[in-house]
Amino acid sequence: AQTVTQSQPEMSVQEAETVTLSCTYDTSESDYYLFWYKQPPSRQMILVIRQEAYKQQNATENRFSVNFQKAAKSFSLKISDSQLGDAAMYFCAYLTYNNNDMRFGAGTRLTVKP
Amino acid sequence: SAVISQKPSRDICQRGTSLTIQCQVDSQVTMMFWYRQQPGQSLTLIATANQGSEATYESGFVIDKFPISRPNLTFSTLTVSNMSPEDSSIYLCSVLPMRDYGYTFGSGTRLTVV
User: Fold this and answer.
1) Tens digits of per-residue pLDDT, B59-113?
2) Which range has the worst mean pLDDT, A74-78, A101-105, B86-90?
3) Would you call A100 and B101 a contact, using CB atoms and an 8 Å cutoff?
4) Sign of the CA dihedral with B60 first, then A98, A78, and B3 last
5) CA-CA distance, B96 to A52, in Å (whole number)?
6) B94 CB-contact burial (10 Å; exposed 0-12 / middle 13-18 / buried 19+)
7) For residue B43, which of A33, B35, B59, B81 is within the disulfide window of CB 3.0 to 4.6 Å?
8) If pLDDT is split at 50, 70 and 90, which confidence band does A2 have?
9) What is the DSSP letter of A67?
10) Contacts of B49 (CB under 8 A, 6+ apart)
11) Which of B33, B45, B90 sits opposite A43 (nearest CB)?
């Protein structure tokens, strides 16, 4: 079974600074997708960034980037120039090519200090 | 990507009663997924709902407690039956319109059982 592990229940960052959220996963599949979702207090799950496992290049979306290490099964999220609006729960998620139910990590609560 | 309208956004219910949550999608999708998110926790899949067939429930979830309807390709309901305070959670519906982009989520229903 695939599992997703987020070892940091809580993280804190100063506004305008950079923070990295960790995620590891366990799978025997070679083809899959990885995602980071943000869940602010509004409860809405918002896709932040995605990565296809066959792509070696790390995905980047504006201030958000990932460090994808396939051999190590690691998928960390880096948030640069942190803003107050980045404060939320962040979930790492995994989806295979052949199955449709997404697996989520336990989440990391990010606090941004002004 | 798809847009999901989920209702109600929140409710406070008496124990022993039932609540039906609705999700309407703006496009046709084969599968819809229902998740539970207990306070401070990650997302747990309750069931997968296919149009024209019975929902597939995950371990620990049963149809008598969480009956699901899927009358067409754009709509689904989840009922939480005979509620107890332990059912107090956020309930989320989601769809997978394009695997590359992961799930699209409804805005969630915050249920409090008193």
Assistant:
1) 999 999 999 999 999 999 999 999 999 999 999 999 987 777 788 999 999 999 9
2) A101-105
3) no
4) negative
5) 16
6) buried
7) B35
8) low
9) E
10) B31, B32, B33, B34, B55, B68, B69, B70, B76
11) B90
